[in-house]
Amino acid sequence: MGNSAVVWLCRLVALVKQENRSPVEAVGMGKAAKGGKKLPSAPLADKKKKAKKNPLFEKAPRNYRLGGDIQPKRDLTRFVKWPKYIRLQRQKRIMLMRLKVPPAINQFNMAMDKNQAANVLKLCKKYQPETKEAKKARLMEMAKAKKDGEEVKSKKPQVLKYGLNHVTTLVENKLAKLVIIAHDVDPIELVCWLPALCRKKDVPYCIIKGKSRLGQLIHQKAASCVAITSVKSEDEKDLNTLISNFKAQFNDNMENRRRWGGGIMGIKSQHVTQRRERAIQAEKAKKLGLQLA
């Protein structure tokens, strides 16, 4: 190696140390310098331009520790202390799912469907009892007619019969043509015997969802049951259709009277049971594999 080569190598090393570049880049730079052409700088070498900050707006970081800034809004549904009646109805629902429910009570979970309920309510609305205002007006007209010496003739109206004791009497005397029972009567002991009585007396009955829906028919908040005793001639066909359907669905349905309810465990218990079953199946498969081998 000649002296000129050693000098050139020393200059290259010094240049690398000075500019923090690789020897390849330094060689390229030396060649470019000899030729007199400037190579474009690497794109990564460009310095990022800093955004100019407005001095009028100062950064004020928030402190969420004790005594600091107001905490952000969060969903606190899990921590709500619900009223007692809500807690009780939720606990009752869970208990009815977990425990075994006897058929006499479980039958109230098998109510009529939405379309059937619409047809029943449509028929019942035609035979709603009169309101207090309507009754007052009717009695006033009768009193005026009597005062004027006119003969007052009043026909017995065809309306829904309500009240548990009244409906029970109608069923016992076989005067009710159709009995409609609410599925959510509380306590359920008030009406759990009524389907059996209807079957005994061969009176058609049905179970509808919502005691409040029955209550609306008789201008009250809720009703445990209502009964239809008579209808107009134009509604006889609709009533007979409903009676035949409900007799097959409720009165003559032996399956509903024998089916137990409840026994549904929570999701965690179900997962534990499934894991246990899988472990048992794996153990059986392992034993079978050993026997086959």
UniProtKB/TrEMBL annotation:
Keyword Cell cycle: no
Biological role: Component of the ribosome.
BP-aspect Gene Ontology terms: ribosome biogenesis
Alphabetical UniProt keywords: Ribonucleoprotein, Ribosomal protein
Family the UniProt entry places it in: Belongs to the eukaryotic ribosomal protein eL8 family.
Listed Low complexity bias regions: 28-44
Any one GO molecular function term: RNA binding
GO CC terms, sorted: cytosolic large ribosomal subunit
Name of the molecule in the record: 60S ribosomal protein L7a
PROSITE patterns listed in its UniProt record: RIBOSOMAL_L7AE (PS01082)
Keyword Transit peptide: no
Domain of life of the native organism: Eukaryota
Domain Ribosomal protein eL8/eL30/eS12/Gadd45: 153-239
Region (Disordered): 27-55
InterPro entries assigned: eL8/uL1-like, Ribosomal_eL30-like_sf, Ribosomal_eL8-like_CS, Ribosomal_eL8/eL30/eS12/Gad45, Ribosomal_eL8/Nhp2, Ribosomal_eL8_euk
